[in-house]
Amino acid sequence: MAQALQKLVTKVPTLLRAAVTYSKPRPTTFWHYAHVELVPPSPTEISKAIKGATNITVRDGFRNGLVATEVMRWFYIGECIGKGGLLVTVDKHLYSHLLLFLNVLNGLICLVCVCLYFFYI
């Protein structure tokens, strides 16, 4: 038992050194990409983005609109789930039909947007 413990103690520095060597490239790679990707845009990059946004086709604009609509719908659904309904302060039973109608309407809008998205791609 003492010999096994002594062998383990002698291997600890090499194992620690190997762990440090193995983990060292990962933080440096992370910081490299963090400095490149997480930097706020410069004024020249903003002007290039604005110029690039003015040269889009109707198809791309429609596709961007569908994506924005989808994001807003998912935000709306998340808010309804988080609050437990549309109106929390008033009796939920009175507005159950309104909630059902809005959810069905949201599903229809989602279906139409998906169909249009695949039609125009």
Key structural traits:
121 residues
Question: Mind explaining what this structure looks like?
Answer:
The chain has a domain at 57-121. Helices cover 81% and strands 0% of the residues. The protein contains five helices and no strands. It has helices at 2-23, 25-37, 43-54, 58-83, 96-120. The relative contact order is 0.06.
Topology, element by element:
Layout: H1 2-23, H2 25-37, H3 43-54, H4 58-83, H5 96-120
Q: What is the straight-line distance between the termini? A: 69 Å
Helix and strand element order = HHHHH
Give the overall form: flat
- Give the oligomeric state of the chains in this entry, treating copies of one chain as homo and distinct chains as hetero: single chain
Number of strands: 0
Helix content: over 70%
**What is the alpha-carbon Rg in Å?**
28 Å
Unreliably modeled segments: none
Major sheet, described briefly?
A: none
Pfam family, one: ATP-synt_G
GO cellular component, one term: proton-transporting ATP synthase complex
InterPro entries: ATP_synth_F0_gsu_mt
Keywords: ATP synthesis, CF(0), Hydrogen ion transport, Ion transport, Membrane, Mitochondrion, Transmembrane, Transmembrane helix, Transport
Concise synopsis of the structure shown:
With 121 residues, the protein is an all-alpha fold. Helices cover 81% and strands 0% of the residues. Keywords: ATP synthesis, CF(0), Hydrogen ion transport, Ion transport, Membrane, Mitochondrion, Transmembrane, Transmembrane helix, Transport.
